[in-house]
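thought: fold this chain, then report.
action: predict
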Amino acid sequence: MPNTKEIKKRIKSVEDTHKITNAMYLIASTKLRKAKSDFDHTKPYFMALRQEIKRIFRLSSDIESNYFYPIDNIKKENVKSIALVITADKGLAGSYNQNVIKESLKILDDYPDMKLFVVGEYGRHYFNEHNIKVEQSFLYTASSPTMHRAREIADLLLEEYNRNSFTKLFVIYTDLESGLVGEAKSNRILPFHRAEFSDISDDTKVVRNLEFYPSLTHVLANVVKSYVTGYVYSALIDSFCCEQEARMMAMSSANDNAKNILTNLQMQFNQVRQAQITQEITEISAGAKARLRKEGV
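observation:
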């Protein structure tokens, strides 16, 4: 059984760890509130862009573009795909990162030649360690999602999509479900199915003689660019919210475990200390009796 000095040292170590995990919990909760506010502000912009794309369809339902599936819906052979994978920069967030990695590996099984673009140090490190080729890693951190960075990512993805004739573009991230429950998923954002915009409410009266300058194709390209930028920004914010929520849950669990360990260590310390006191009293009593016998009392 360890002595009191060893137990006190262990208690001090657990208390220090508890202070760190509690501080990380408070920091994550603060970041979550801010990120959640930013996330709520992205929805109107995102839905407005979807509505504009629907209006274009209503004006010209037979429009042909590489951003949309063909009207005859005939699937192309030799599908070439690219994917944006969004992970965190560090761990200590439960299964958050591993769920994104699992989803990435799952989609890689379906598209072995897929090109990966990665945000987050965790994802970069994992793919590098497992010799999975990454087309490009974005060096800025996943903990600072901004519209400017989302625009840079979207521009690069669209450039690859248009230049190399890719037929599918995916975003693999953690989606903020109802409440604060995160789920890792892969969403295809290009090309669009026309049916994806059929459920968007639009009470605005359509002007049939509306003119597009310089052309409908150019206008659509600009709208799609803004749409992809908005989607990437939303996915970055979404993932960051889920990361902070996962970290809060992990730190909360760590705090509870630390409290249980401290309670057990304190009980163990009291038992050892009581045993030492009892032993000391016994030794003093035995010594006093021996001295009395020696003196013939």
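thought: worth noting. The chain has two domains: 4-18+252-294, 25-249.
final: tokens above.
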